[in-house]
Each structure stands twice: as structure tokens, then as C-alpha cells.
From TrEMBL:
<dbReference type="InterPro" id="IPR029052">
    <property type="entry name" value="Metallo-depent_PP-like"/>
</dbReference>
<dbReference type="InterPro" id="IPR004843">
    <property type="entry name" value="Calcineurin-like_PHP"/>
</dbReference>
<protein>
    <submittedName>
        <fullName>Metallophosphoesterase</fullName>
    </submittedName>
</protein>
<feature type="domain" description="Calcineurin-like phosphoesterase">
    <location>
        <begin position="5"/>
        <end position="200"/>
    </location>
</feature>
<dbReference type="InterPro" id="IPR050126">
    <property type="entry name" value="Ap4A_hydrolase"/>
</dbReference>
<dbReference type="Pfam" id="PF00149">
    <property type="entry name" value="Metallophos"/>
</dbReference>
Amino acid sequence: MTRQVVIVPDLHGRADLLRGVLAHSPDAHLVCLGDAIDRGPRSMETVQLLMELHAAGRATLLMGNHERMMEEGIRNYRLYEGTHDLGDYRRAMEGYQSWMRAGGDTVRKELGGLTLEKFPPLLEKYLAVLRRVVYVTADGAVHDDAPDAPSVLVSHAAPPVKHPQYPNPLSAALWLRPFEGPFSMAPGVAYSVHGHTPVPTATRLGRHLYVDLGAYETGRLALVEVNVHGLPQITVLCGRGRPEAGQKYSRFGEPLPVQAIAVPGSSSGPVSGEVRR
């Protein structure tokens, strides 16, 4: 039996848009590209809903670089609790402060305070289920390794490749930008889909698709319906936000055709210049 798979890019605390996804695609299996946390207003609600979907078998959750930054602090703090090594404690605090500067401070304010000593159990459980790279085949199955059948590669920032700055390919998949490519992919991969790099509209650069529309500030979230045999159908949900903020994002490659629709209950509509089917 074939199931519909929809890729959801960087949510950054926009639980309202995630609920819009569920209203728009109630029967789809979601593959979430990571960066679900911080910057936006409701990180904890977003994570709670994602974890409920994951537990129900309705979502595959990937790690983004913001989850990786969050992980750095708490992982080293848990090491320190066992070793009492001040080096572990220093690395924990450095990781925590780095995340705070990159957006984690919004989660701290949302919670009314956040420390490594009293780190929310929900966020640790969330980190424990995150995957780095997956492959989706035509039947809607999600694989950890490249299958023999044709597939679409999905990861937060880039395909997993060795890079001078990130010798671990799974780290490269969290951090690389389009200008650092093109990136090699396993035989049988039709194209790859990524968030991480904000773009004014869904964009194709070679065989790599970039679909992070800066939802936390623009209110625009691209939903990518996986199609192994051709380019995917992309629907842009338009909710509360400042769509004009997207004009500052990098422009490169070729704009992809999309259909823009308002989130139920929102007065927002397609932004000027939206590419439609």
C-alpha cells in the first residue's frame, strides 16, 4: 500500500502552521526537516505535537542544526554528571551559550527560565528520536540508507558528503549551504530536499531543492509532496507573519512552481510574485 509523504521544512516554533499542515494533509506521513525549535513563539507546543505524531507513526523527525546546538549543551552536561570532569562542564556551558545566541533564548523566555540542571524532559526525548538523513521511495516508505529502488533524499541542509569543514558526512548534512555544493548522491536518488537556507520561494539548484521560506517570520511554510518520478507538488501555507521579510533571503537557482493557499482561519494569502502552477 502506497502512502502519501509530505516534507515539512523549518517550523521554528510555529505550532499554528504545523496544525495547518495537519488540516491540509490529514492522512499524510510527515517528514520534518528539523529546526522545529526556537526563534518562533511556541517551541514547546511544536515539539509536543511532533512527538505525538511520531508516537502514532505519523511523522519521521530529522535533526536540524538548531537541534544539534541544543543537544551539544545537554549531552555534555549529562557526561559531566557522570564524570564530574570540569572539561565536560565547560563544553556543556559553551554549547548552551552558543544555542542561546543562535535562537535558544526564545525557548528560555517561553519557559520562563531554562537551565541545563533543569532541562525539559520533553526536549531530551525529542532529541533522542531525531534522524539525520532519510530516503523516501515511491511506496512512501522511509529508509535510513539509500535503497536499491529510486528514492528522494531528505535531510536538513545538504546530502551527507565529506567536506573540509565537516569531515563527518552526517554533520555536513546539518550545516552545508547551497554554494558549498554541488553534492554527490547515491545512485537511484532522483533529487534531494532541504531546509536550512532561507529562500524567497521554493528553489531548485541542480538536483537539490531548497524549501525553507522562513516560516517563523514570514508565516509561509512550503509542503513538499514526495514524487520519486518527477518534481514534487509544493503547496505554500500562508499564515500570520510578514511575507515581505522573505525578500531579504538569498536568490539562486530556479524557482519551483507552487500553489499558495491560506491557512484555515487566517486572512493571509499568496505574496506578490508567488510562482503558481
